[in-house]
Amino acid sequence: MQADYLVISNGQLLLAALLIVVNFAISLTFRLGLAQSLMIATVRMVVQLLLIGFVLEWLFLQQNPLVIVAIALIMACVASQAAVGRTKRRFVGIYWNSLLSILVAAGLVAGWGLGVTVQVEPWYDPQYFIPMLGMVLGNTLTGISLGLDRFMEGLVEQQDQVETLLSLGADRWEAGRRLIQEAVRTGMIPIINSMMVTGLVSLPGMMTGQILAGASPIDAVRYQIVIMFMIASATAMGTFGVVLLAFNRLLSADHRLRLDLLRPS
To answer: What 3-state class would DSSP assign to 89?
Structure first.
């Protein structure tokens, strides 16, 4: 069966790889010290994408919901680790907080997007479930990472102000509410910025992929609108959830600031 899109050969991949030579040339010419990092990143990207390509080919043939859910849980675990890995500080339980926030946000949004909006049958059809979940997780982890990092840094930077409010009789919510607001706002800014320019400055990957595969541009746009709403919702829920859990941990129930629980990453 002949594909209704242009298939890229190995030789064409090598031609595309010549583009990365520009990065190496700039790094070496101006002594940026990025050549080794570029090499590692390039090799990792190629290997990881080729591996996931083979995995997805196998996965799309599966009709066992347990297998699909297991893969989804692994993706969520990796996303939660990556989210925490970008923060400058840690506290005991931060990984579980990140995982719980991602599972709840992505689970609710994916359930609504696939089961109610797109109405995929069956709901675990990997051709829809895995790619859409991956896009939601990838963007949600960014929001969680930014929001969590902003909240912890805010507590450290404004320690005196928070402790003064607590000493004057304010409860922990009154003392930390503004920091929560700033952290959630920080986590949501990237997706808001992305929504502002989608369609004018950037053509998202999902939409572009569908068009290249021969789908109608209007149909591709409809899918992209759905996924953008899913990403925005999951990012908001995930960021708010993880910041609230961090707040509950670092501002104790007896209204004390517990910076002693933080340690550098």
So the answer is: strand
Residue type, 19: L
List 263's β-bridge partners, or say none: 90
Residue 216 backbone phi and psi in degrees, to 5 = -65, 135
Cα separation, 257 vs 32, whole angstroms:
42
Going by the DSSP 8-state scheme, the letter that residue 6 receives in this structure is: P
Taking the C-alpha atoms of residue 191 and residue 158, their distance in angstroms, rounded to an integer, is 27
| Helix (H), strand (E) counts: the chain | 10, 2
pLDDT at 244: 96
Q: Tokens representing 166?
A: 């607590």
The pLDDT value recorded for residue 62 is: 81
pLDDT along the chain (265 residues), means of 10: 71 92 94 92 92 88 88 94 92 95 94 90 88 92 95 94 91 94 95 88 74 82 90 95 95 91 88
d(CA 95, CA 168): 33
Peptide bond into 204 cis (omega under 30): no
C-alpha 87/C-alpha 242 separation (Å) is 13
Per-residue pLDDT at 1? 46
Nearest to 187 by CA among 92, 256, 91, 105: 105
Q: Are 253 and 197 in contact (CB under 8 A)?
A: no
Task: Provide the strand spans (E) within the chain.
Answer: 89-90, 263-264
Q: What's the pLDDT at 199? A: 81
